[in-house]
Amino acid sequence: MSNEPRLPTLVNQATGEKYVLNDPSIKLGRADDNQVILPADGYASASHARIFWDNGIWWIEDLGSSNGTSVNDQLLTKPHQLAPLDVIKVGRTFFRIE
Fold first, then answer.
1. What is the pTM (predicted TM-score) of this model?
2. Model confidence over 47-73: pLDDT tens digits?
3. Which of 6, 25, 52, 91 is an S-S bond match for 44, by CB 3.0 to 4.6 Å?
4. Going edge to edge, which strands form the sheet with 36-37?
């Protein structure tokens, strides 16, 4: 059995799509240069939010999006530490951390 920690996964609550957080910085938004692309969400900004690894902790920050980013229904005003089962809202798309 491996002792390596399992990488967190971002799960799209509507589609079930899964994105493993295997990069120290992952951007979410409508533009094609994001790692998690949301082309059908008209409420998501082109470059909406970023999930990143810093000092052993996963964080999320809003990138100045028009409609903001929420974690567990709390609108972000600064980077927020993520925890398992957190629900992230980007535009009208909901993700859960697993």
1. 0.91
2. 999 999 999 999 999 999 999 999 999
3. 91
4. 36-37, 25-29, 49-54, 57-62, 80-81
